[in-house]
Structure formats: C-alpha cells, structure tokens
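Researcher: Go.
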Amino acid sequence: MRNCAGALEAIFVQLMTRIFALLATLLIASCVAPPGDPVTDASVATKVSYPVVQRQPRVAARTIERRSALYADYLIVDKSERLLVAYNGGEPIRVYRGLQFGDAPRGHKRFEGDERTPEGVYTVHTRNPNSSFHLSLRIDYPNSRDRTFAAQYGRSAGGDIFIHGQPNGANRRMRGDWTDGCIALTNAEIEELWTLVPDGTPIEIRP
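Model: Structure:
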C-alpha cells in the first residue's frame, strides 16, 4: 500500500508542477501587447507640420544711389537770359542768374580770340581747382565741327572755355562781360555748382 501511495503522490506532484508552469506561461504572454498594424487613420494620428523659413543672406551695400537733389545730370545756359539751370531727371534743381560772358557775348564762338562763348551741346569734362579764377569747370569746346569750320579759314577754333568764378584775389565781383568767352559766376555760385556737376555732364548753351 505504501508503494502505491508514494507513486500516486509523485504523479500528483509532477502534474501540479506542469499546471503551474503552464499557468505561468499564459500569465507572461498576457502581459505582452501583441504587435499591431501601423496607424494610418489621420483622425487618430495627426501630423503636425511647421513652416520652413528661408532666410535671405544680407549683402553689405558698397554703393549708395545718389539722390536727385545732390547732383546735376544736365545743364542749360541761356545767353540772352544770362541764366544757367541745373537739372536732374528733367527737373530743375538750381538756377543761377546774371551770368557774365566775353566782350562779344552774342553769337557762336568761331575763332580763337573772338571773345565769344560757344553755342551748342558740349560736355563738362574736367575741372581745375587751381586755375587763375575761383574754381573752373572745363567745357570740351571745340568739337570736330568747330575745328573743321575754323580750318576752312586757316584759323584756330580756340579753346580753354570754362565755367568759373571771379579772378583770384578780386575783392568784389567784376562788372559787365569781362571773360575771354568763358561763363563767369560768383564765387559762392561756382562753389555750389562745383559740387553739383560731375565730370561728363552735358551742357547745352543756347543763344
């Protein structure tokens, strides 16, 4: 009897051991979430997007555009009105009156020594801060047409035509027309015009 009881007890212990092992396995498996399919429903998973800001690189400006009030791009001299008008973009920015010319102010300059001021369209092309007069803006007279005309008569067309101030050392403004064909302003006027007119500015001189 004792042998049978011992055998039954051993079988019972083995059976219970297997049952406990099986239960433990089931318990561990229940704690692990089963792998599911990736979520594709937009209502469940919302994707948040942020705008991409593209920053433009800053470039250091090496030039500054000149404003119309600071320089002239065209000059008109009216000899009969004794008037000089400086323009920028078609708009007058300065006016000078009471211009002084040579001893023979009327008519276009034809020859050297005729004391006349040229008429036509020329260019202010150079300047002289150390001339015999207070500042000088040189006009590119004569042009090829002027030289051809003078050569027909075997003469020189002349040259050295300037817009300038009063003679150096003069205590007052000269009276009347006294230049050799140049255009004379007051010293204060030529100082202002000097800063307004860059080299290469066209100048139209009318009768």
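Model: The longest strand covers residues 120-128.
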